[in-house]
Amino acid sequence: MIELLAFLDLESTGLLHEGTPLAEQPHIVEIAVLLTTAKREVVGSFQRLIKPDGWSIHPEAEAVHGISDDLCYQAGVPIRFAIEELEATLENATVIVGHNIQGFDRRIIGAEIERLSDKGSLRSLRSLWWAKQAPKIVDTMELATPVLKLPGNYGHYKFPKLSEAVNLFPAQYLPRTDLLEWIPSHRAMDDVIHVEKIYWAIQKWRTENAASPPA
């Protein structure tokens, strides 16, 4: 059986709100997935903007990722199509990788599926399908933390942003092509490409340092 890795990222209308029901959480604005083999051969990908359906992008979120309501109306697809494409892409993936995927992407996707189920656009079984993907999920934010050891509060290491993970990871594991630091565009596919890079850098570090078996 060929191991397939799905690298995932999304942009949203705003931040998650703790204690708020999933159905009232932010909406997906853009989603991207890169599907590769364990040899880093690209075998599939997709990137979709989402057409607004009664929602708008918070100005602070637009200032970060640069995606406007107008762009989403003109170039986006209905969320149900994007979720169907996501399901088809992840169907045979053995690992699903993202940066802060546990705390953000997984929950936002769950909220979208819940909203669609309420509208009857998708079978309620899709919520079960998404829940079953949990064992496949690998979070590079969590894995990079003990490598970078960035100082945090109360004597703990802080979780690195994706840009920190990429720019500060030891160069012997993540070679730089130039002397400039990576400045993220906060567009989904750009982030996905760098999640893939940091994932394999982490695997090299873990193998060499025998911290634990690769995820």
Name a few traits of the molecule:
5 strands, 215 residues, alpha/beta, Nucleotidyltransferase, domain 5, 5-stranded mixed sheet
Question: Radius of gyration, Cα only, in angstroms?
Answer: 17 Å
Helix content: 40-55%
Quick one: overall form? globular
The CATH superfamily of the largest domain is identified as Ribonuclease H-like superfamily/Ribonuclease H
User: In this structure, how is the largest beta sheet organized?
Assistant: 5 strands, mixed
Return the string of H and E elements.
Answer: EEEHHHEHHEHHH
Topology:
Elements (H helix, E strand, L loop, with lengths): L3 E9 L15 E10 L4 E8 L9 H7 L3 H7 L3 H12 L4 E4 L2 H19 L5 H8 L4 E3 H9 L13 H7 L19 H22 L6
Parallel strand pairs: 1-4, 4-5
Antiparallel strand pairs: 1-2, 2-3
Helix pairs in contact: 4-5, 6-8
Description:
The protein starts with a strand and ends in a 6-residue tail after the last helix. The longest helix has 22 residues, at 188-209. The chain has 215 residues and is α/β, with parallel strands linked by helices. The protein is built from 8 helices and 5 strands. Strands 3-2-1-4-5 form a 5-stranded mixed β-sheet, sandwiched between helices. Strand 2 and strand 3 (42-49) form a beta hairpin. It folds into 2 domains: 4-139, Nucleotidyltransferase, domain 5; 141-209, no CATH class.
Short synopsis of the structure:
The protein has about 220 residues and is an alpha/beta fold.
